[in-house]
Amino acid sequence: MTRRDLDSRTQTLERTHTQRPRLFRVLLLNDDYTPMEFVVMVLQRYFRKAEQEAELIMLAVHHKGQGVAGVYTRDVAETKVAQVMNHARRDGHPLRVVAEPEPDA
Question: What is the residue range of 63's domain?
Fold first, then answer.
């Protein structure tokens, strides 16, 4: 190829459409043994909830069986689940925490 051939070629650039990462809800599940105060502390420490908001979420867990601690990307949600579960086990509480995908809008 000559230089003229190289200069006359066109280059096509593709535009890629990036999607927002899928979000996951971190849910605290009710049990009959974990103290309410521990749940409030977990919500304040790991999910940065104010005391009043943490208490409302704790009451939802207690009365409805579960409460949403927060909504995060998958990696963050899984990390928070592991942190809370480790803390609960270390303190001898059976608290269950799960991450589930947010429903599609």
Answer: 23-101
